[in-house]
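Researcher: Please predict.
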Amino acid sequence: MRRLVVAALAALMLGIPGAGILSGLAWASPEDSATSGAAAPSTVTITDLPAVLEPGENLVVSVDVTNAGDEPLELTSVDLRAQSTTSISEFALHRWMSDLTPSTPVARATISRSLAPGQTSTLRLSFPDAELPWPTGEFNWGPRGIEIAVNTDAGTIGTDRTMIVVASSADVTPYPTTAVVPISALTSEPINRLLDDRAGADGAAPDNPTQPAEPVQPAEPTQPDISKRVAAWDIAGVTLAVDRELEASPRHATHAALPSYDADITALRALGLADQARRLGENAVFLPASPPAEEDITFAQSLGMTVLIPDADYAPFSVLTYTPSAVTTFNEETVLATNSTISTTLEGRLSVPGREDIALDDLDMRQVAVALSAVHQRQRPNDPRPYVIAVPRAANDAAREAVSAVLRANWTTASSVSTLLSLIPDGTERVLSTPTSAPAGTLTKNDAAAIDSSLAAFCAVAAIFDDADAKIAAATAGADQLTSVSWREDPAGRGAQIRAIAPTKEQLESIHVTTTSTINLISESSSLPVQVTNDFDQPVTVTVHLDVPDIRLRAPAPVEVTLPASSTTTVSVPVEAHGSGNLDVKVTVTNAQGTLVGAADVLRVRVRADWENVGTVVVAGFVGLIFVIGLVKSVRDGRRSKPVPPDDFVAAAKRS
């Protein structure tokens, strides 16, 4: 919020003798500035000041001034201006930050600084407490808009506005506050890489491709910044809703469970994937990323989830002059209504109903957030209504600084989601708005079907490895990550990840049959030698099948075999042959369940099963013929013994 104005009666602010009192100052309009010979446009940005100005404390402000013109600038003074009263509503803050509320002069600092064209200079300014006419009483302390104006002799060259809270010199009644911070992480490694880790980061093959790979562990989010993020948000009053696939042990913050991989419960409900939603989100925190429908909240409650609803979507039925307690009910169950205005402020924009959003820089984010929290207390000073901040999923360091400043304020007291849920719900009647359209970028029916199909293809190939269970568990976890709310911002990236689940063409061909020359088969019972190559760097167990085209050849049963890593193995497959003919036999390689896991090929087989029988008959006949011929020849050529006379036979018998 920068605008060009010209200060009139500059001599008074410079301390010239005889000048009138501060309240007598008159200020020119931006139009007057343009005609008074003001220097070329420049930018003025407040870069540092306290979020809360304690009673008796000097106001120290840092300001960056950039000369955006073509001529040098001679800076002569800096004016501190302010909102005449404290802000008691988010609308008052919005009016100030959008330059609609006029400012009044407060103090002037005299400077002497030359600024060349294009140069940026940082001014460190201190305004004494004695010059700050801001009350700090019990009923008039609070958030106040301030403005810094930088001047030359020609007039004001630029201004910048922000907020500051002037703290109370009296005791205030703090209200319980918690900031819910979702923490999750996703892996970006394609799931199908679990099947083949032969290539390193540079695509090179390992030195020893036959070395067995380490067992695969289920995929877990392992981004290195997760532990740092948990540590950074480990603040008293913060409820860390941590992806329950991650480990976190905060010392100061309260730990709660976020659905696994921050699953999009709204999308899973809409797609009818209740079982998956229950597996991922049961008893976790439901932190909707878009305005929830009644069905979404009811479904989350059925899963035992802790429900948080933005108060912009679950607003009081009647118009109130204050923000009611965050502890309320839905379907007669206790839920928490998060403050939507401060949540959007942590995204870098000030948004109030019926007004145009205002972009906030990092400093304004903190100043406005603290001011909004002070407004909440000032609306009903003696009614400590619980306050819940839903920190955006993409919150940056500036958002963390803003939340930390809110939780350090003496009008807030650190609490947690679990503590607030134990309180008696506020009786303010609320109405849930009906979303006008489906959230952009959510998981679609086609996405869900593609995940199932790709995962089934992956599991079929993974089943042949020794560590199949670990691979399948890791792939399932990776597929679950694609249901994350974060993918709403990148549906195209989610589609690419879905496609990367299924095995690649190269992986599907890593197990393949090596074609040999034509095989002659002359026996009724024999085995076909099939050469199967395993290009994976791990051993696999597969089943080899023969698809025979007709009855002349039959394969009674497939053969299961374990193939060593990076090798070719000859597998003997039993067959039965009948008749003769030339056949093309299709060879397929499957997992134990019969799903194809390798490249098929065709073996050419010459079947001559009758040749064995014919050959046996011919050989037997030939041998028999030789025997007969030899016998006959022996009979014909052999000499016969002379007959023995009877008397000689009798005499010989008697002698014996």
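Model: The longest helix spans residues 610-637.
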